[in-house]
Amino acid sequence: MAEKLREEEKPVERSTTEELSLKGTLFSTIVFVGGSVVLWTGVLLVLFIMRH
Hints:
Elements: H1 2-9, H2 16-51
């Protein structure tokens, strides 16, 4: 019983593949969100310039 409690008290260690996956997710999110903002700004700018 005492050994079982000690095993449960150990901190959870993340594997390197999980950390790489999280880094990849963060990178993809930044690229897609940033790219979308830049693209949308460009579209609005083009529409504004075409209006005049």
